[in-house]
């Protein structure tokens, strides 16, 4: 028997909204099953809570579950739960969410929003995700009976202008949604949802960690051709992150990591955390033991998955982990988030930012703990991911100090072992106020650079920075522990003590007078390439070197910007001469005796080219340099 049949007409705005949801909001039609299973899971949660709160509620909670039923001949798919169910009034309110008054305002909000996000209060309501069914079905029937009530309600619509609601007797407690499926259309990414393998695939991807069993009848054919049907549970229900750390074995963590990352190595570190309070979430993160092959490619994806109440929302959740920690794998499961209607796009709200900040701080503090307790594991981490982590020095100003704390660098102190900045500062010479560094393509290039001579002679340790990102972050990071970073290839170098300055003062003044004419002449001769020629205090054995002003861009950084397609003005640099080198003193004497001799001008040009090559630079005219050098060598034979 049935009674109380009513036909409702969708308002014009509601029809527009329905079309928008079906054709625009959801980018993947498989999502419909995730939404229906999520609704069913919510109904089971609510029943368990209701039974706990109302001891007089006559319900059986011993076998709460979700059933999926396929009928290939009728082309139907039914999602059934034995949860809380709905009354007739609730069906009208919840299923009619997009049909009730106020949809015009909601439509306007959606149109105005760039990401098609609706009002936050709609998220998670039954009616919103439920309507995704019309992406794959040309008719949807819902049969539901609320726990504790005697009669049920049937709702049915073809997604057109109307829907029908009627009261029905003799229906099971809970809710059953039956989809009358559209024909398969691969061109429109519409699959055959009566295929058991396809249903299993969707459940495994989106609903594997739902807390309730998701069951489906699966047919088996034996060797004799006999077909039998058995009920299988499709989801694992093993949400490790929702369990206490004490209840999870290490092998389970490792197995989950392999499933998540497709990496057959064990993770370097496991981070299992739970945040409670006004905003709750659980997370299970992994630091791999080796870098993925695509870590430094543009197509590299971040490895954190987002769940909301154990329902999979998205892979590669960029909002939860910054670019420089893109190698971190894992899942984050929030109790509530401001998603848009399709649950596919996150809003930039304080909850997202709060989770991101906490997760980043936890990852960095974990690395710091590894650094303090296990040098070998830290070395593995830094060798695999150090280049990526240093990218955070450019844009994560909140954690810049922590990133510097966990960073290691090559230095002139040891040819093999790296040093931390804290160790460097602890070893600084008395009176030293700056952290000296040099950048270059390789350690050997820097070690053979003339810029190092005075630092090596006086025993100053210099950091050797060879990663491309080093050229960038040293421009933006001002200091560490109050010690300013100073490039040994920029500005003036003054390593002498007060006593040494006093003793060398008269000699230095005399050198400035003796070389003044030569310096002025060379500045004119090399004016196209250098902005100044001056005497050097950083050279001990080389005749000359090229340095930049304190705030000049380095040649390597200039080259990097040009490689990225950015036009950069050529930066002229400074040529420094060693006043004690025989070549420089000989050039001064030759210039004093025969200023107009072309050979003297060529020697000055060769001296500049040698200084440029000594630092690993590129000659603007290699052929001319080679010709001048060959002619000069021929005259010596």
Structure characterization notes:
- The protein is built from 20 helices and 23 strands.
- It has 637 residues and is of the alpha+beta class.
- Helix 8 crosses helix 9.
- The strands form four sheets. It has a nine-stranded mixed β-sheet, covered by helices on one side.
- Strand 8 (214-221) and strand 9 (227-233) form a beta hairpin.
- Residues 99-106, 114-126 and 340-345 have low confidence and may be disordered.
- Residues 1-343 are annotated as: A.
Radius of gyration: 36 Å
Instruction: Note the main sheet.
Output: 9 strands, mixed
Uncertain regions spanning at least 5 consecutive residues: 99-106, 114-126, 340-345
User: How many beta-strand segments?
Assistant: 23
Strand content: 15-25%
The number of distinct helices, counting runs of at least 4 residues, comes to: 20
Class from secondary-structure proportions: alpha+beta
Compact description:
With 637 residues, this protein is α+β, with helices and mostly antiparallel strands. Helix content is 38%, strand content 22%.
Features:
637 residues, alpha+beta, 9-stranded mixed sheet, 20 helices
What is the fold's blueprint, element by element?
Layout: E1 2-9, H1 12-25, H2 31-53, E2 66-71, E3 76-81, H3 88-95, H4 103-112, H5 126-130, E4 137-145, E5 152-157, E6 162-168, E7 174-181, H6 196-206, E8 214-221, E9 227-233, H7 250-261, E10 269-275, E11 281-287, E12 303-308, E13 311-314, E14 329-334, H8 350-373, H9 375-389, H10 392-395, H11 400-405, E15 408-411, E16 414-420, H12 421-427, E17 434-439, H13 443-447, H14 453-457, E18 463-465, H15 468-476, E19 479-480, E20 483-487, H16 498-525, E21 530-535, E22 544-547, H17 555-563, E23 573-577, H18 582-593, H19 598-614, H20 622-636
Parallel strand pairs: 2-8, 12-14, 17-18, 17-20, 21-23
Antiparallel strand pairs: 1-6, 2-3, 3-7, 4-5, 4-7, 5-6, 8-9, 10-11, 11-14, 12-13, 15-16, 15-18, 19-20, 22-23
Helix pairs in contact: 8-9
């Amino acid at each position: 028997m049935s009674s109380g049949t009513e036909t409702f007409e969708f308002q014009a705005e509601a029809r527009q909204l329905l079309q928008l949801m079906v054709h625009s909001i959801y980018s993947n039609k498989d999502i419909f099953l995730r939404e229906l299973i999520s609704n069913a899971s919510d109904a089971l949660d609510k029943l368990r809570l209701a039974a706990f709160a109302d001891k007089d509620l006559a319900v059986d909670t011993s076998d709460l579950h979700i059933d999926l039923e396929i009928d290939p001949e009728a082309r139907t798919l039914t999602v059934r739960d034995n949860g809380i169910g709905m009354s007739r009034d609730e069906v009208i309110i919840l299923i009619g969410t997009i049909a009730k008054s106020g949809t015009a305002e909601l439509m306007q909000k959606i149109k105005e929003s760039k990401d098609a996000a609706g009002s936050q209060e709609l998220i998670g309501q039954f009616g919103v995700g439920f309507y995704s069914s019309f992406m794959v079905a040309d008719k949807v029937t819902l049969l539901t009976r609320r726990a504790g009530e005697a009669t049920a309600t049937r709702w049915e619509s073809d997604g057109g202008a109307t829907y029908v609601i009627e009261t029905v007797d003799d229906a099971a407690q809970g809710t059953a949604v039956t989809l009358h499926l559209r024909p398969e259309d691969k061109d429109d990414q519409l699959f055959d949802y009566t295929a058991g393998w396809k249903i299993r695939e969707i459940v495994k991807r989106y609903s594997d960690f739902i807390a309730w069993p998701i069951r489906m009848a699966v047919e088996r054919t034996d060797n004799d051709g006999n077909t039998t049907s058995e009920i299988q549970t499709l989801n694992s229900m093993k949400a490790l992150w929702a369990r206490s750390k004490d209840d999870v074995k290490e092998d389970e963590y490792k197995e989950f990591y392999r499933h998540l990352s497709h990496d057959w190595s064990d993770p370097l570190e496991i981070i299992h955390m739970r945040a409670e309070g006004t905003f709750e979430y659980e997370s299970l993160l992994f630091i791999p033991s080796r870098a993925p092959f695509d870590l430094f490619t543009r197509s590299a994806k971040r490895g954190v998955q987002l769940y909301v109440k154990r329902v999979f929302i998205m892979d590669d959740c960029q909002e939860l982990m910054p670019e420089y920690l893109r190698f971190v794998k894992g899942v984050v499961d929030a109790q509530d988030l401001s998603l848009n209607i399709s649950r596919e796009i996150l809003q930039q709200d304080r909850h997202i930012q709060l989770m991101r900040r906490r997760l980043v701080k936890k990852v960095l503090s974990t690395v710091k703990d590894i650094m303090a307790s296990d040098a070998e594991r830290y070395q593995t981490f830094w060798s695999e991911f150090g280049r990526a982590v240093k990218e955070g020095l450019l844009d994560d100003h909140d954690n810049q100090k922590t990133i510097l704390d966990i960073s290691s660098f090559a230095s002139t102190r040891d040819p093999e072992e790296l040093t931390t900045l804290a160790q460097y500062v602890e070893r600084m010479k008395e009176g030293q106020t700056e952290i000296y560094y040099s950048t270059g393509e390789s350690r050997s290039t820097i070690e053979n650079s003339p810029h190092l001579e005075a630092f090596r002679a006086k025993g100053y340790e210099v950091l050797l920075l060879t990663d491309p990102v080093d050229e960038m972050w040293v421009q933006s990071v001002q200091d560490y522990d109050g010690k300013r970073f100073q490039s040994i290839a920029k500005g003036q170098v003054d390593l002498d003590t007060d006593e040494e300055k006093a003793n060398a003062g008269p000699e230095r003044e005399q050198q400035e007078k003796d070389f003044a004419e030569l310096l002025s002449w060379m500045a004119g001769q090399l004016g196209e390439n250098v902005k100044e020629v001056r005497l050097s205090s950083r050279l001990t054995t080389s005749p000359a070197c090229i340095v930049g002003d304190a705030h000049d861009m380095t040649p390597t950084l200039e080259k990097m910007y040009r490689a990225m397609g950015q036009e950069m003005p050529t930066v002229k640099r400074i040529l420094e001469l060693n006043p004690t080198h025989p070549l420089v003193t000989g050039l001064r004497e030759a210039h004093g005796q025969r200023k107009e001799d072309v050979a003297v001008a060529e020697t000055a040009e060769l001296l500049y080219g040698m200084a440029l090559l000594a630092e690993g630079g590129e000659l603007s005219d290699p052929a001319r340099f080679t010709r001048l050098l060959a002619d000069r060598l021929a005259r010596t034979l």
